[in-house]
Amino acid sequence: MTKREPFFWITISCGLVIMAFILLPLIEMMTAPSFSMLKETIKDKDVLRSIWLSIYTAGLAALISFVFGTPLAYLLARTSFRGKRLVESIIDLPIVIPHPVVGIAILGIAGKNHWFGQIISELGIRIMGSVTGIVVVLTFVGMPFYVNTVKNGFEAISPRLEKVSRSLGASMFSTFFRITFPLAWRSMLVGIIMCSARAISEFGAVIIVAYHPMIAPVLIYERFEAYGLKYSQPVAVWLVFICLLLFLILRVLTSSTGEKKA
């Protein structure tokens, strides 16, 4: 039997510490509510409404990211241009900006004192305290995850395939939808899941832009403030279940991609 070196045990120890750090609080939260309490919570109309609103708005954010983010991801993957690094940095900004700042920034241009806010107000579009506002916020925070994921997917596809298609007379549009898109669809699906998972967990920006109608994280916060852990934990458990399901799907898709590449 091969003797393990000290470095191996250091890696194992660090791994166990990190796993404990992540799992202990989650296990405590997941096991604190009884089954009857979880069952009662999921029957609560306010809880169902908030969870559905979270899923619905996160899904819309992912759809918007898909429509507008896919062409941008393709551009970044296939072309080099002056200022490309700057564009990539701007796309990543929502990841590092404090979340309340995101909400304040969005309200800054959506208010009636701003020319853009005046235009959307005249069009009958309301951002503050609306589902539209929630979708805008979730798209803002989720878009980078979609664009970066799909960009990596496009980069993994050989440009030679596209060049062959173009040399046979196919247009760029036709080449994308007949060659590139079918090869990159899995990356797009992973990007949609990543975007949705990030969006569904957003709280700080949403609470500034649209406290009402309540998405699940805002409802959890309100119940914690009003009633404490006992009434906020069951809602949190159901939201964790949804996020866990999304990441299980993500892991299945990414592992399938890895096996095909191998």
Task: Describe this structure as you would to a colleague.
The chain has helices spanning 6-31, 35-43, 45-78, 84-96, 99-110, 115-122, 131-155, 159-167, 172-200, 204-209, 216-227, 229-261. It is mostly helical and 262 residues long. The longest helix is centred in the N-terminal third of the chain and has 34 residues, at 45-78. It is globular.
What fold name goes in the CATH topology slot?
MetI-like fold
Largest sheet: none
Q: Low-confidence stretches at least 5 residues in length (pLDDT < 50)? A: none
**Portion in beta strands:** under 5%
* Number of domain units: 1
Percent helix: over 70%
Counting helices, strands and paired strands, the structural category is mainly alpha
Short key terms for the protein model shown above:
262 residues, mainly alpha, MetI-like fold, 12 helices, 82% helix, 0% strand, globular
At a glance:
With 262 residues, this protein is mainly alpha-helical. It has 12 helices and no strands. The two termini are 30 Å apart.
Summarize the SSE layout with pairings:
Layout: H1 6-31, H2 35-43, H3 45-78, H4 84-96, H5 99-110, H6 115-122, H7 131-155, H8 159-167, H9 172-200, H10 204-209, H11 216-227, H12 229-261
